[in-house]
Amino acid sequence: MKKLLIAGALVLAATASLWAAVGCDLNDPDRDVKRIFPESTGYKTTYLSIKDGGGLQQLARVINRLGDKFSGPYENIDVPYTLYEIKKGAATLGYIHGVNQKGTYGGIQVFLALDPQGVIRGFYIQKLTSRAATQLRSKSFARQFIGLSLKDFDGYNVPFGRAEGPVAAIRNPAPEAVWDFRAVMRAVKKNLILMDEFVYHGAKP
Amino acid sequence: MQKPSAGFDWLQRLSTAEGDWGRVAVQGRLAWNKEGDNRFEGQLYNAYAAGKVQETEIWAGHNRPAQGLASAWDTHGTLLQPLTMYGFGYDRDWGAGAGRLFPWGDVRASLTTGSGMPLYFKGNWLASARASGGVLERDNYSAGLSVARGRTLDTMGLHLMESAPETYGTVGADGTVLWDRFSQRLEAVTGRRQGQNVRALFSRTGVGFLEESRLTIEAQPVAVWTDGRETLEWGGGASYVLNKNWTARVMSLWDRRPYNQQVVAQLYGYFKI
């Protein structure tokens, strides 16, 4: 005899912070913060969304600046973003912020560590199961992003993967995984735009 | 796990101007029983406070004991379950624990009541520890070694099956690998439970399809030997992310015993309030 059970489950996340668990969190923030900002003494976690920020106008602006439409479960107006404000005592050393990005198979999570002026001082791919994961996670690939900022990525054409200026110098370490490389580049630009919208408010270096 | 239910999930971070120092988490649900005297049953999962002391995180309350794959694997809401469902450790237990992260992995330990969801003091206790190498989200692999010893109670959900605690002692090894669209989890446990020699082997293979792996197909054989008698159970399941709030899941379990086949379908919703 075969039993058929129907199990429905409804869970309500009672705080914005928990809802953010479905967004893009550092898996081990203690370890990652210390590695990227060794001089830090702590970090403060806050949760942001376009819905709670600038709403539909901001969403349209982000899409326009990205130059590519939003799609999938991780790109919509109420997707939560986790912002780690890195502290040394009460002073802010910088930020760590991650975004989800559609990859060839499964999602990719791309984190940027930014100084208080919005300049990249760390690049970190957390989730990535691509066959080219080793190359895309290599230190030599990550180093190519250091010192760049949103103004460098402004001219990056997401749909065609065309770059100019310093971004054009970023080399794909795995030519056979061109779509994952382009997904990472899109995630970096999206990340920088969102940080500009959420934190820097257009005060680009 | 496989009951219609409605629940909540609450998390509060504790911070000062210099950063986060702790958190409080509570997660519970009201489940509906088709059979039994109590048609509705309140169940508590997370109910703990955690804080950092230098590099070490300490928690107290109802949380995951430091034992096996289940202690490092979020199976919240899923239908196929790890070895805790087969009597090897507990999904959650009452007590306290500590953990520290290292660049190469982490080490965790806990001292809990060995009673699972309900809280009893009948001379029961469970000490557990797990060390793991590799960070799954960074390295795409993780491997752990666990040891547990105590006198535990046989409970099922909120219900106490035996009133006296029994000796429990196990050692185990587990591993997880992610590659491309594939995931593989393995766990092996051996030891003594309720006066019997026990061993278990667990495997879960998953394959992701469609964009962002929103469709996942999984297969799960679990073999348990109790004083040499083998029980082999096969499980299979599929999960499809409908949208950011809803996931549909289906699962089937079967073994050689007659009348012991299950098919479970689930619609799972998760909303911010």
Task: Map the helices and strands.
The complex is a heterodimer of chains A (205) and B (273).
Chain A lengths: L1 E12 L2 H4 L9 H8 L5 E7 L6 H12 L14 E8 L2 E12 L4 E8 L5 E6 L7 H4 L2 H5 L6 H4 L24 H23 L5
Antiparallel strand pairs in A: 2-3, 3-4, 4-5, 5-6
Helix pairs in contact in A: 3-7
Chain B lengths: L4 E12 L2 E14 L7 E14 L2 E8 L29 E10 L2 E8 L12 E9 L2 H4 L1 E12 L2 E2 L2 E2 L5 E14 L2 E12 L2 E14 L5 E12 L2 E13 L4 E10 L5 E12 L1
Antiparallel strand pairs in B: 1-2, 2-3, 3-4, 4-5, 5-6, 6-7, 7-8, 8-11, 9-10, 11-12, 12-13, 13-14, 14-15, 15-16, 16-17
Please, how many helices of chain A?
A: 7
Major interchain interface with per-chain residue totals: A-B, 55 and 63 residues
Provide the β-strand percentage band of chain B. Answer: over 45%
The side-by-side strand order for the widest beta sheet of chain A comes to: 2-3-4-5-6
| C-alpha geometry of chain A | globular
Description:
The complex is a heterodimer of chains A (205) and B (273). Chain A is built from 7 helices and 6 strands. In chain A, helix 3 (55-66) crosses helix 7 (178-200). Chain A is α+β, with helices and mostly antiparallel strands. Residues 15-21 of chain A have low confidence and may be disordered. The radius of gyration of chain A is 18 Å and the shape is globular. Chain A has a 5-stranded antiparallel sheet. Chain A has helices at 16-19, 29-36, 55-66, 133-136, 139-143, 150-153, 178-200, and strands spanning 2-13, 42-48, 81-88, 91-102, 107-114, 120-125. The longest helix of chain A has 23 residues, at 178-200. In chain A, strand 3 (81-88) and strand 4 form a beta hairpin. Chain B has 1 helix and 17 strands. Chain B has a single domain (5-269), classed as Porin (Beta Barrel). A 15-stranded antiparallel sheet of chain B has the order 1-2-3-4-5-6-7-8-11-12-13-14-15-16-17. Chain B has a two-stranded antiparallel ribbon with strand order 9-10. Chain B is 1% helix and 65% strand. The interface between A and B is large, with 55 and 63 residues.
